[in-house]
Design a protein that fits this description.
alpha/beta, single chain, globular, six-stranded mixed β-sheet
Length: about 120
Amino acid sequence: MAKFVPLTFLKDTASVVEFCQECGDPVFVTRIGSPEMVIMDSEFFNEYLRYRKEDGRLDIRREFAAVPKTITIKDLKNTGEISELCSQTNEPISIIRNGYDTLVIISIAGYEKRHADLWNGGD
């Protein structure tokens, strides 16, 4: 079942990490009641949403066609900036905590496109 949280939830970074790890599925972040971005545990992203070749290996060329973005967990507290960054890139943004990829956040449009590409085999 889909989980939804308000944008302000991102300000409590410890709760966000714990919630995403316990949930195990993507969590939809809403702004004024409408889904705006998706945040998920990096393990979920790596397992289900990375572009892969037919043999299962990571498709580096496709995965990193856009410059990968990274932010720190503390940056999540700046919800307006995070919202703007997601809408500008439509690419996954890695969230680093204690030097490790912990979470991934992506705009709704970026999530839908990646999901459709993976399910439909499109580019």
